[in-house]
Design brief:
single chain; 446 residues; alpha+beta; Rossmann fold; Dna Ligase, domain 1; D-amino Acid Aminotransferase, Chain A, domain 1; 3 domains; 8-stranded antiparallel sheet; 5-stranded parallel sheet; 22 strands; globular; binds ligand MV4
């Protein structure tokens, strides 16, 4: 096991990593920007180091600043959390060159899977179902048109370096496809420095279901079931739950096995998520997220496996602490994301001082947050300020606990997404489990 690790992140996930490391008996170094100076979660670290100004480009995203801090603090490993440098293969490679373990997959695995057209090819080669589309990158618009005519319109052009909904364009006919192809290439070039694009048949309002996997350096990979992530607005997830109301036992088993095949083919070490689109009884691989995700707690709640501890263990070379055939799932868990945003102002960030804070409690409730009454939400970062996670014996019980917890939650001084979340959990289609990625657009005038 490592003696000392550096947490290259901020906010609730930095706190989550500090707690896991401390329970493992690992010393911790927290880095912070000037925007987070004095934040109380930093007191939980054994050492803290300022890595630069509030703007993330010069602090949490600065490879030289973080590597310097890691060298000064003499750590064995760096945990990148999510966002920031967590999926940056160049950062993982720099860690290796500096003799610091990166807590995540190898830079080679990150590059292989980070290229989406490549990940599709790998999936296909290992009998993981993919959305009908091109074999790898498109050479020109003629190839796009030829493929689109094979399986019919509408189609979606995607940037191979994109993901999470960035760099996509729908086309309904040959003419719009030629435009979409050129626009997508130009956009991808300027956004990602990589003009590569591929094409898929466009699925109309699929469900978004992902499988949690974790692999060790001894060749074992297990899956920990799915998370249903279809409740989202403009690619920002608002609520996640497990199990998914949409999966049968047969689909769950097949998706889990498919995710493991893909992870093994990529020599995956660490925690990761294999994303699928689901339509009826069909599922299609879309991409891999090579990091711990915001919504990991719901998987922890139903499996009783601490994903952060497991991540640190496998990065240090230890074996996974559990085998696939011993994984059990209990009850139902739901997470809602509480953002410092104003739903009445198109979800504009709402930073400022929290004047009053009363958190819900009681059976079945977990809150992952770094905030409290008197905390000032800085304007420089993502607006996620807390995750409310509930667990119950079944879906209906979990929903009741979530309603109750959201009603108890008081956060004053800033605007939050709590009022919207209260409406979502009472929506009759949500309560029935009858929803897909079109749910928010259909029922909420946002
Ligand atoms: C799609 C799709 C429909 N058809 N691919 C958006 C995020 C990125 N990870 C993939 N995305 C989609 N890919 C095909 N072939 C619809 C989406 C999509 C979506 C996916 C997951 C969660 C929310 C979404 C919202 C809109 C569109």
């Amino acid at each position: 096991m490592f003696q000392r690790i550096l947490v290259a992140n901020r906010g609730e996930i930095a706190l989550r990593i500090l707690r896991a490391a401390t329970e493992l008996g690992v010393e911790t170094v927290a880095v912070y920007s000037m925007g987070d100076e004095g934040a109380p979660y930093l007191d939980l670290a054994d050492e803290t180091i300022c890595i630069g100004p509030a703007a993330s480009g010069a602090s949490y995203l600065s490879i030289p600043s973080i590597i310097s801090a890691a060298e000064v603090a003499d750590v064995d490993a760096i945990h990148p959390g999510y966002g920031f440098l967590s999926e940056n293969a160049a950062f993982a490679e720099t860690c290796r060159e500096s003799n610091i373990e990166f807590i995540g997959p190898s830079h080679e695995t990150m590059r292989l899977l980070g290229d989406k057209a490549n990940a599709r090819k790998l999936a296909q080669a290992h009998k993981v179902p993919i959305v009908p589309g091109s074999d790898g990158l498109l050479k020109d618009e003629k190839e796009a048109v030829k493929i689109a005519e094979e399986f019919g319109y509408p189609v979606l052009i995607k940037a191979t370096a994109g993901g999470g909904g960035r760099g996509m364009r729908v086309a309904h006919n040959d003419m719009s496809l030629v435009n979409a192809f050129h626009q997508a290439r130009a956009e991808a070039q300027s956004a990602f420095g990589d003009a590569g694009v591929y094409v898929e048949k466009y699925l109309d309002n699929p469900r978004h279901v992902e499988i949690q996997i974790i692999g060790d350096s001894h060749g074992s990979v297990i899956h920990l079931g799915e998370r249903e992530c279809s409740v989202q607005r403009r690619h920002q997830k608002l609520l996640e739950e497990t199990p998914s109301p949409a999966l049968t036992r047969d689909m769950r088993k097949k998706m889990g096995q498919a995710a493991i095949r893909l992870a093994k083919a990529a020599k995956y070490v660490g925690a990761g998520t294999v994303e699928f689109l689901v339509e009826g009884k069909h599922f299609y691989f879309i991409e891999v997220n090579a990091r711990i995700q915001v919504e990991h707690p719901i998987t922890e709640m139903v499996t009783s496996i601490d994903l952060l501890k497991e991540q640190i263990r496998v990065a240090s070379g230890e074996k996974l602490s559990i085998e696939q055939n011993r994984v059990r799932w209990h009850g139902h868990s739901i997470e809602v994301r509480i953002n410092a945003e104003d739903p009445n102002k198109d979800f504009a960030p709402s930073p400022g001082t929290i004047s009053r804070y009363i958190a819900p409690g009681g059976p079945g409730i977990r809150i992952d947050t770094h905030i409290f009454g008197g905390y000032r939400v800085p304007p420089h970062y993502d607006s996620l300020i807390a995750k409310l996670i509930v667990h119950g014996p079944d879906r209906q019980a979990a929903i009741r606990t979530l309603e109750r917890a959201l009603d108890e939650y008081v956060i004053e001084g800033i605007k939050t997404t709590i009022p919207l979340l209260r409406e979502i959990v009472r929506n009759s289609y949500f309560v029935k489990g009858d929803y897909n990625t079109g749910f928010i657009d259909e029922f909420f005038q946002l």
